[in-house]
Design goal:
There is one protein chain. It is built from 19 helices and eleven strands. It is mainly α. Among the domains are: 147 residues, 3-Layer(aba) Sandwich (Rossmann fold), CATH 3.40.50; 102 residues, Arc Repressor Mutant, subunit A. It has a three-stranded antiparallel beta sheet. β5 and β6 form a beta hairpin. The longest helix has 16 residues. The termini are far apart.
C-alpha cells in the first residue's frame, strides 16, 4: 500500500486558532495512526497579506501542541522546498503544460471590463461565469498577464471521506486564474501541484473550500493527475453556535491557551472532540488513544460548537490526573511573586491543596497568594456574601470569637481542626455556609479556598489566629 501522507498547509497571515489547529491535528492523527508522514507547508502566494512573525508562530503552535511534522520549511525533506514562494519555477512548468495543451489562456481583460461583464450578468439575473467571455484569440501568455484555466464544464460525482457522496452540475465549473500577473500562482492551482509533487494522499481542509472542489477536479483531469482523498472538516462554531469561529470574532490564539496554562494533552483531547468521537461516551483521551481510535468516518458532518467552559473542565480533569511532582514542574513559572522566597516543600504542599480546584495554571496566583502573604482585610467579602450579609457585625464578631477560642487549643492538624470546626456548628447553631465562610474569609481574605481545615493547618496556628484578630478588629 502507498504510504499515507497528510499535510497542514496554512497561510502565514496571522495566528492560529482552534479551527485551524483542528485540521492540523486530524491530519497528524491520521498520519501517526498509519505510520505515515505529516508535512508542514507554507502557502504564501498572497504576499500582501503575510504577517511578520506568522511563520514562526505557526511552527511554535504545532511544536507546543506536540504535533511534530516529518517534513517542513525548517527541517526540509525529500520534496523541499516546503514554501510556495520558493517553488515558483515548478508552477511555471505546469502552467506551460496547460498552455501547450490548450487548457489555459492569457486573460486579456482589464478589471473594469470584467466588472462590466459581472454587472451585465447581474442585470440579466444570471450567475456570472467567466467562461462565457473567453476571448476568441487570446494574446500569447508572457507572464505579465493573468493566466486562466480553460475549464471543461461537466457534472461531477465524488466521495468525500467526511461528507460522503457528493455531486454537482456543470454550472459550477468556471475559468479561474491559475497564475497572477505578479508571477505567483493562485491557491486553486498551487495546492494541486504541491500535493501531487509531494505525494499527498489525504487532503483535510475546511468546509469553505467544498464549493471549489468541482473546479479542482476539472484541473486534476486537465493535468492528468489523480486527486488525493478529500476530507472536508465541518466548521468549528462560536460559543453561541450561530456562526463560524473566526479571528475577527475574537477566536483566541492557540499559544494564548498554552500561556494561560492549558496543557498540550488537554488541547489535543479537546480539539479532537470538536466534531469527532469514537462512538462511545468517553471524553478524556490520551494522545495514544486518539491515535489508535481516530477515523475520518467518525468525523461529524455538522458544525461543532466551541465551549470554553468544557475546555476548562477538561483541563482541570487532566490537572487532577497528574502526579503532584510532575504538576509542580509544569507550574513552576506560574507562582505569584510573593512565593519567590518560599521553600519548594511549602509550595508543593500548597499545590497539593489547590490541585483539585485548578482549571488552568494561570489561576495559581489568585488561588494561592494568601498562603504566602497576609492580604488586607476586605469588607466586601462579607458584605457581598449571600449568607453573611444577612447578619449584623455584632453577630459575626461573636461567632468569630467563639471560633478563635475553640481553635486556639487545637494542635492544628487537619483532623483535629475538622473535629473542632464541626463542633463549632453545634456550639453556634449555624450552618457551614455561614460559619465556615466567615472563618475562611477571616483566615484567607478570599471568597474560596481548598478544604478549610487543610488550609488552616498549612497556614499554621499563629498566622490563622492573627488573621482572625485582624478581621475581628474590622467587625468591632
Amino acid at each position: 500500500m502507498k504510504q499515507i501522507r497528510t499535510r497542514f498547509a496554512p497561510s502565514p497571515t496571522g495566528f492560529l486558532h482552534v479551527g485551524g489547529i483542528r485540521t492540523a491535528l486530524f491530519a497528524w492523527l491520521l498520519a501517526r495512526q498509519n505510520n505515515g508522514a505529516f508535512i508542514l507547508r507554507f502557502e504564501d502566494t498572497d504576499q500582501k497579506r503575510e504577517v511578520a512573525g506568522a511563520r514562526k508562530h505557526l511552527m511554535d503552535s504545532l511544536h507546543q501542541l506536540g504535533l511534530d511534522y516529518d517534513e517542513g520549511p525548517d527541517i526540509g525533506g525529500p520534496f523541499a522546498p516546503y514554501t510556495q514562494s520558493q517553488r515558483l519555477a515548478n508552477y511555471k512548468i505546469w502552467a506551460d503544460k496547460l498552455v501547450a495543451s490548450g487548457r489555459a489562456y492569457a486573460d486579456p481583460y482589464s478589471i473594469d471590463e470584467v466588472q462590466a461583464y459581472r454587472d451585465e450578468a447581474r442585470a440579466n439575473k444570471q450567475a456570472f461565469l467567466y467562461r462565457n467571455h473567453r476571448p476568441e484569440t487570446p494574446p500569447i501568455w508572457d507572464g505579465l498577464r493573468p493566466l486562466r484555466f480553460k475549464s471543461d464544464p461537466k457534472p461531477y460525482a465524488w466521495t468525500d471521506a467526511v461528507m460522503g457522496d457528493l455531486q454537482t452540475g456543470p454550472e459550477v465549473i468556471d475559468d479561474f486564474i491559475v497564475m497572477k500577473s505578479d508571477g505567483y500562482p493562485t491557491y486553486n492551482f498551487a495546492h494541486i501541484i504541491d500535493d501531487a509533487e509531494m505525494e499527498i494522499t489525504h487532503i483535510m481542509r475546511g468546509q469553505e473550500f467544498l464549493a471549489s472542489v468541482p473546479n479542482y477536479l476539472n484541473m486534476y483531469e486537465a493535468l492528468g493527475l489523480t486527486p488525493p482523498i478529500m476530507a472536508t472538516m465541518p466548521h468549528v462554531m462560536a460559543e453561541n453556535g450561530n456562526k463560524k469561529l473566526s479571528k475577527r470574532d475574537g477566536a483566541k490564539d492557540v499559544l494564548d491557551y498554552i500561556r494561560d496554562g492549558f496543557m498540550p494533552e488537554t488541547l489535543r483531547n479537546f480539539i479532537a472532540s470538536l466534531g469527532w468521537n469514537d462512538g462511545t461516551e468517553q471524553e478524556i483521551f490520551t494522545t495514544e488513544e486518539l491515535v489508535a481510535k481516530f477515523s475520518l468516518d467518525h468525523v461529524q458532518r455538522s458544525g461543532a460548537r466551541f465551549d470554553e467552559k468544557r475546555l476548562e473542565w477538561m483541563n482541570g480533569t487532566w490537572i487532577r490526573g497528574l502526579p503532584l511532582d510532575e504538576l509542580a514542574v509544569r507550574v513552576a513559572k506560574y507562582w505569584p511573586d510573593e512565593a519567590a522566597s518560599t521553600s519548594s516543600e511549602y509550595k508543593l504542599s500548597v499545590l497539593g491543596l489547590i490541585q483539585e480546584r485548578l482549571k488552568f495554571f494561570n489561576e495559581i496566583p489568585e488561588l494561592s497568594r494568601f498562603f504566602f502573604i497576609d492580604l488586607p482585610v476586605n469588607p466586601e467579602l462579607i458584605s457581598g456574601n449571600k449568607q453573611l450579609k444577612k447578619f449584623t457585625s455584632y453577630e459575626l464578631l461573636g461567632w468569630l470569637q467563639t471560633a478563635r477560642n475553640e481553635i486556639a487549643d487545637s494542635n492544628f492538624s487537619a483532623a483535629d481542626l475538622t473535629d473542632r470546626l464541626n463542633r463549632l456548628l453545634e456550639t453556634t447553631g449555624q450552618k457551614p455556609g455561614v460559619l465556615f465562610s466567615l472563618i475562611r474569609i477571616a483566615t484567607t481574605q478570599s471568597p474560596a479556598s481548598p478544604g478549610l481545615a487543610e488550609t488552616m493547618a498549612l497556614l499554621g496556628k499563629d498566622r490563622c489566629l492573627e488573621r482572625i484578630d485582624s478581621q475581628s478588629t474590622h467587625l468591632a
